[in-house]
Specification:
The protein has 276 residues and is an all-alpha fold. It is built from 13 helices and 2 strands; from the N terminus they run H-H-H-H-H-H-H-E-E-H-H-H-H-H-H. The chain starts with a helix and ends with a helix. 37% of the residues are buried. This is DUF2785 domain-containing protein.
Length: 276
């Protein structure tokens, strides 16, 4: 099967369409079963790349898409081992978020989900960053876990979904805040992927006042931490993550020429905490 996938990712659309008509009912279930394998070549370069080609070329039937969605949104995929900290199950969770990002993208262009399933899935996905505890980026001998970055990609997709309930946006924002406090300093561009969630909201003209309040709360939490526990290691990691995020956010806002009050708020707190 690995050789078939190697061939598949090199195919042009017509050849790929013909291949899927003959072998798709065997190949696609295999891809789903192994989307979180610890074999990085199979997981990342073959299965995920093949999935991207199939959705780009619109070569998956509606029933295949719906089946994949139901499976991936389940505890056995998206939430598998999420309470366990660092384990190999992170690869299943992390790549489930990438697949779901693609499936939601399709659903926005050409809806295939029942409304109840879509609504339930949006609620479930909104809590992912809040629940994820494994913050590793690259894992030696196993490749990219990157669950925070991939979870951010999914979050950016769902906050832009036309059916997202407004009450879920604060849940997503809380999840982003929680990422600053998970005990690790991010070094693999997680800040840029998380900022993309906020910029999606900014572009969609989400209430600027709410985003300003969220920024204030991020730094309020840092202050509260020092009052209760002093300047411990968790505080310094959270401070580094928060500042790195806000600096990236500031320049993204500056480039967008949007929400000047939000941009000024971010600049105020960065300057204040940078010199603290």
């Amino acid at each position: 099967m690995k050789q078939q996938l190697l061939d598949l990712v090199k195919m042009e659309k017509a050849e790929l369409q013909n291949y899927m008509e003959k072998h798709g009912d065997t190949l696609f279930p295999y891809m789903l079963t192994h989307l979180g394998t610890i074999d990085s070549e199979l997981r990342d370069q073959l299965i995920y790349q093949a999935f991207c080609k199939l959705i780009t070329y619109d070569l998956l039937r509606e029933e295949q898409l719906a089946h994949a969605f139901r499976l991936i949104i389940s505890d056995e995929y998206l939430m598998r081992g999420i309470e366990d900290g660092e384990s190999d199950e992170v690869f299943t969770r992390s790549f489930s978020t990438l697949w779901l990002t693609g499936l939601f993208w399709i659903d926005k262009q050409k809806p295939f989900l029942e409304q109840t399933m879509r609504n339930d899935a949006l609620k479930r996905c909104a809590t992912y960053l809040l629940k994820e505890r494994d913050t590793r980026g690259f894992v030696e001998d196993k490749g990219w876990a990157h669950s925070i970055a991939h979870g951010a990609d999914l979050a950016a997709m769902i906050v832009d979904h036309p059916d997202i309930e407004k009450r879920l946006i604060p849940v997503v924002l809380e999840g982003i805040t929680s990422c600053f406090w998970k005990g690790r300093v991010y070094v693999d561009d997680e800040d840029e992927r998380l900022v993309a969630v906020l910029m999606t909201l900014v572009t969609a003209e989400y209430e600027e006042e709410v985003l300003i309040e969220w920024v204030e709360q991020v730094f309020d939490r840092l202050e509260q931490k020092t009052r209760v526990d002093g300047y411990d290691r968790l505080f310094y990691h959270a401070r580094t993550n928060s500042l790195q995020f806000m600096k990236t956010f500031y320049f993204a806002l500056k480039k967008s020429h949007r929400t000047p009050n939000l941009r000024n708020t971010v600049a105020f707190f960065v300057e204040r905490w940078q010199n603290a």
